[in-house]
Design a protein that fits this description.
binds cobalt (II) ion; globular; Creatine Amidinohydrolase; alpha+beta; 29% helix; 291 residues; four-stranded antiparallel beta sheet
């Protein structure tokens, strides 16, 4: 990997990690979701990056893909299990990292929260170039099961490319038998999800996160210039078009954008998540989102 490219990934990783740490300090009973999301996104911009995607604040049985909408009045409550998922990009080189916090720290969900953090550490210990993705999944499954929880089977880690948050490779949270290997000089995100229920998620309603569809990235409109292939929030469109709700509706009708569904645990149980971004070199492993 070229030094210049590596340095941009490292900078994106640093900004993403600091934004995630900062966001967690803001989460308290009574805090508005939108304040946490917007402050963390502004933090990324102040550091010279751009968000890789809207800050995800998913609670309790939601695994991912909720970001507050413009004027959102939702607040955090004591006992909420919050997955904070944040990434930064520098010149299109992305980071993606996540942590789980319990609001008000009653300690009721500490085991569930600890199990994904420990599963992620265990996965990072076995990670090396040319390892089969099933081996990483097996490691995650072993740790999550030892805590008495279930890994989420239909969610997992992913490859990352320039301006592409979810490139082809899928890294399971259990041994799914997939022998595909992690190639040297690749960038990946490993993200264990654990559940206190059956360990499957399904699509819920939309969570205010969108992405342009198709390959029309050469179009001239502001929206294409601004958001290109990166997921964006409904509230970010205010800067593109003051009538953005109508505009978005029209885009949806023409199938020019798609709306991400909130991912929910199938049995309604609690979910925790932990995530890091890693550069896999032929002779080294660099976790870009870890100090
Ligand atoms: Co990810």
């Amino acid at each position: 990997m070229e030094t210049d490219v590596k340095n941009k990934y490292l900078e994106a990783g640093r900004i993403g990690r600091e934004a995630l740490e900062y966001a967690q300090t803001l989460i308290e009973p009574g805090t508005l979701f939108i304040d946490v999301a917007e402050k963390a996104e502004q933090f990324i911009r102040n550091q010279g990056g751009k968000p890789s995607f809207p800050v995800n604040l998913s609670i309790n049985n939601e695994a991912a893909h909720y970001t507050p909408s413009f004027g959102d009045t939702k607040t955090f409550k004591t006992g909420d299990v919050v997955k904070v998922d944040i990434g930064a990009q520098v010149d299109g080189y992305l980071s993606d990292n996540a942590a789980t916090v319990e609001v008000g720290e009653s300690g009721k969900h500490s085991d569930l929260i600890d199990c994904t953090r420990e599963a992620l550490n265990a996965a990072l210990k076995v990670l090396r170039p040319m390892i089969a993705v099933r081996r990483i999944g097996a490691e995650i499954e072993k740790v999550v099961s030892s805590f008495g929880f279930k890994p989420v089977r239909n969610l997992g880690g992913h490859g990352i490319n320039r301006y592409d948050l979810h490139s082809s490779i899928f890294i399971p949270n259990y041994d799914d038998g997939n022998a595909s290997m992690i190639k040297p000089d690749s960038v990946i995100a490993i993200e264990p999800f654990a559940s206190s229920g059956i360990g499957m998620i399904h699509n819920g309603p939309g969570g205010n996160i969108y992405i342009l569809s198709g390959t029309k990235i050469d179009r001239e409109e502001e929206i294409y210039k601004n958001f290109n292939t990166i997921p964006f929030a409904e509230r970010w469109l205010a800067s593109v078009d003051p009538n953005y709700r109508k505009y978005l509706k029209k885009m949806m009708f023409r199938r020019e954008v798609s709306h991400f569904a909130i991912l929910r645990e199938h049995s309604g149980a609690f979910i925790s998540q932990a995530e890091h971004t890693i550069i896999v070199l032929s002779d080294d492993i660099i976790v870009t989102t870890r100090k």
